[in-house]
Amino acid sequence: MNKKRIAILASGAGSNAEAIMAWAQSSTLAEVVCVGSNVKSALVIERAKFFEVPTIIHLKKKNENNRDYDLRLCEKLKAYSPDWIVLAGYMKLLSPEFLKRFQGRVINIHPSLLPAFPGLDGYGDAYKANVVESGCTIHFVDEGMDTGPIIAQRKFLLIKGESFEDFKKRGLLIENQFYPEVLEKLLKDYL
Ligand code: GRF
User: Fold this and answer.
1) Is residue 37 predicted with pLDDT exceeding 90?
2) Class of the CATH domain delimited by 4-190
3) Residue 107, Cβ density class (10 Å: 0-12 exposed, 13-18 middle, ≥19 buried)
4) Domain spans of the chain, in order of start
5) Which of 48, 61, 78, 146 has CB atoms 3.0–4.6 Å from 53's, for a disulfide?
6) Of all protein residues, whose CA lies closest to atom 6 belonging to ligand 1?
7) What number of other Cβ atoms are within 10 A of residue 185's Cβ?
8) Which atom of ligand 1 lies closest to the CA of 16?
9) 1 band by pLDDT with thresholds 50, 70 and 90
10) Ligand 1 center to 121 CA (angstroms)
11) Does the bond joining 115 to the residue before it have cis omega, within 30 degrees of 0?
């Protein structure tokens, strides 16, 4: 059976990307064929190199619109023939043109129990709102901000008196475990 080819897009530290690369190393279902980033100095690039996964650093040209930027990214991704695009802290909205190319095959992890707290700071917004429970959501990506159909969610309770840093750290660790688990299940369902 051919393994599904995953391209990860990430902009930051890349703990989720790392968890996915580590899982894929021993998976019979998937392989990570490349890691793309819109941030040259993102730590995720170093993590990809450690796993010997090819990297794409894709930077915006002066005055380039989102569509043209994404179409250039599609061209670069083409070389790796990805079946799935997995966003892991990719801090950019994807254009309709990009999503059309990979219809129904783009997924994301968001640090809140969507539809609560979409946007840039899921953990921060949940913490400020004094929620009793928080969590993360894995969803298909559509044109909106964190609005696509939900695939799976994992909840966790806030600990009384917990600092924001500890809360976020705990959330991220849960994400790192949850993302590969959900990918494994999703890819099985799509075989
Ligand atoms: C995670 O909290 C993820 O849910 C959000 O951005 C963060 C990325 O963290 N979309 P990392 O770069 O994977 O460590």
Assistant:
1) yes
2) alpha beta
3) buried
4) 4-190
5) 48
6) 89
7) 13
8) 13
9) confident
10) 10
11) yes
